[in-house]
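On clarity, I found the account of how folds are encoded harder to follow than it need be. For illustration, here is how one protein appears when written out as sequence plus C-alpha cells:

:::
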Amino acid sequence: MSNLSHITVAQAGRIGIIGLNRPQAMNSLTLDMVRDIDAALSRFEDDPKIDRVLLRSDTDRAFCAGGDMRRIRTLSLAQNFADAEQFFQEEYRLIQRMSGYAKTIIALVDGVCMGGGLGLVMQSDIRIATDRAKFAMPETAIGFFPDVGGSYFLPRMPHFGGFWMGLTGAHVAGFDAQTLGISTHMLPHTETDGLQRALSAPDLTLDAALDTFSAAPGYQSSMLTLAAKTMCFDQSTLCGIKDCLAKRTTAGSMSARQTLDKVSPRSLQETMRLLRSGRDASLKDCLAREFEAVQRAIRHPDLAEGVRAVLVDKDHAPRWQSSSTLTST
C-alpha cells in the first residue's frame, strides 16, 4: 500500500483500491487528493492484472464530506480566483474521466457522503451503500450550488427527488437512496471487509461477490413516503415550489419551506437554472455550465458568508447579500 496526499492506493488480487484518508476533515477533497485519485486511476487503467477499482474511505466516520470549501473561501477572500478555479477545473475533469473509465469502478459508501463525494460516487458503475451511508447535496446552505455533475444526475432522479435534494440539501439514506438511483446495492456496514475480500477473490465473478454480500432490493413502501416529500418540486419555478409547499401541512413540506427561506436566495436561483438546463444535457455540457457558475459564485460574497456560517464559525446564521425575492426562475 502506498500513501499519497490524503489517499491510500493498494492492490488486492484483481482490484485496485483507492482509499480516502483525511479523517480530520471527513475526507473533504483537496486539489492534491483530486490529482492523486486521477493518478491512481491511470495506474490501474494501465495494469492488465486489474479489472476493477474500489473507491472507499479509510475511516468509518465519513466517505467524503465534499470539496474543501474552507480553502475555497480563503482563496476567494484573497481574490485568488485563479487557484480556486484550478481546484474545480481538475475536480470536474476527474468526474468526466470517471464517467468513461475503461474498467469497472465500485464505490463503497459507509458514512456521510456529500457534495464532491457524491459526485465521485455517481460516476461509479456500482454504488454500494451501507446502513450508515447518508447522502446530501447541501451547497445552497453555504451560498454555493450542487456541482460535480449535480446538474446532470439530480434532474434525472425520479419523483423530482433531485430538485428536492439540490434545493433544500435534504439527506437521504437506505431505501430512499436506492429509489432515487444513488445506490445500486445495500450492505450492512459489518460486511464491508467481507465484500472487499470477495471482490478480490480470483474464483468469484463480480456479480457473485455482490450477490453474496449485498442486495439490490426492488420496490419498497418508502417510495410512497419519498414521493410525498418531493411532491411540490415538480413545479417549474421557485415561486411555484414555495407556493405549493405553503399549501401543505406535512412535516416534510413545512421543513422544506423553512429551509428554502433560510438558504442563499442567489444559490436557489443558480441551482434551479442549472437543474432545469441539465435535464437533457450531456455530463460534459453540465460540467461546463457548472464551471461558469463557479466563476460567478467565488466572486460573490454569499459563498464566503455561507462557508463562514456553516463550516468556520458554525453559528448557522448567515447574512446573505443576495435578494430574498424569488423571480420566476
In short: The mean pLDDT is 93. Residues 199 and 207 are 9 Å apart (CA to CA). The beta strands are 2-3, 7-12, 15-20, 52-57, 62-64, 104-109, 112-114, 126-130, 134-136, 185-187. Residues 2-312 form a domain with the 2-enoyl-CoA Hydratase; Chain A, domain 1 fold (CATH 3.90.226.10).
